[in-house]
C-alpha cells in the first residue's frame, strides 16, 4: 500500500484573474458612415454638379470617401 503524507500542505488561494481587456469600440466619429449618410452626401454632390446624370456611382464613392475622412 502507498503511504499517505501525514503533513498536509496548506492550499493557497488561486490568484484572482484579471478581466481581459477588450478593445475599445470606435467612437461615433470614427465609425463607418451609414448608407443613408452616403446617399445624402452623394445627392449634394450631384446637385453641386448641376444635376447632370451619368455619374451616380462616382458621386457615391466620392461621398463615401469624404465621410470616412470626416470632411464635406
UniProtKB/TrEMBL annotation:
Residues 1-72 are annotated as: Disordered. Residues 1-15, 28-37 have a biased composition (Polar residues). Residues 62-72 have a biased composition (Basic and acidic residues). Pfam families: DUF2934 (PF11154). This is DUF2934 domain-containing protein. It comes from Corallococcus terminator.
